[in-house]
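Q: Structure tokens for this one, please.
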Amino acid sequence: MPGRVRWSAVLLAMIFYSLAANPRESRPPLTTVRPNLKPMICAHRGVKMYAPENTIPAIEKAIAMGYAYVELDVRFSRDGIPVLMHDDWITRMTLFPGPPSLYNAATLRKFRVIPWKGVEFADTRIPTLEDALRVMQGRIKLYLDQKEMPRPAELELLKKYGFYPDNMVVCGSGPQPSKFTEWDPGAPAMPGASRPEDLPGLMNKFPGMVAINTDCATLTAEMVDAAHAAGLMVFTNVINLYANDEACMRRPIKLGSDVIQIDNPELFKKVIEEYRKGQ
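A: Here is the predicted structure, written as tokens:
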């Protein structure tokens, strides 16, 4: 225990040094609530349990359910228009071949997505990012997963609709999200982190960093505490392989994450209600 306390003190000193070196990062520490029975929720690619992913109906479902964020994947059409698409190719969503960059945006918007969620979505199309931002403006925040290198026109679009910089996060620490920080050191970065000792380096790399991105399987109380001490929000993923894992869903609630990204709203509702009944 004494060794752990000494290490925590050293880590906090490193974090505060990083804050001092980056005045734009100076912010008050966040309060950790354990368990956090009122976490903000982020819909992974929209509420894809109820509507096709990365589409306007999936976004509208997230808004209707009162979610704080919607995660969207952005790629570019042949004519340089940002569009919503997770995969390298559009085939899984539309049955058409090739990447989005094979088609002009006007052509992509004509493609119907596969109506596997029911006939109510039979006329759902691939949206542009601007289509999505119009629907989202003033109603829900953006969790941006930039799949291809961003272009200046995309940043201007995010500013035009009031998302950049205060109503969004840019996920990741690779070359695509790093481009936003190259353009603007105050970009609202959210790099991945799994250990408290990662924070000082990340905060130097991303001066405008506002949050850390974590996974439910590896989240620790120490990680949450270190992030909150630095004034950073903690986003935790309960998606993909862990989407239906009840133990993983409980973990960010128990440890005090601020935002939980989910695929399965029904499981989240079950787990949070059980937690609340136990209080």
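A few notes: The first strand starts at residue 40 and ends at 44. The radius of gyration is 19 Å.
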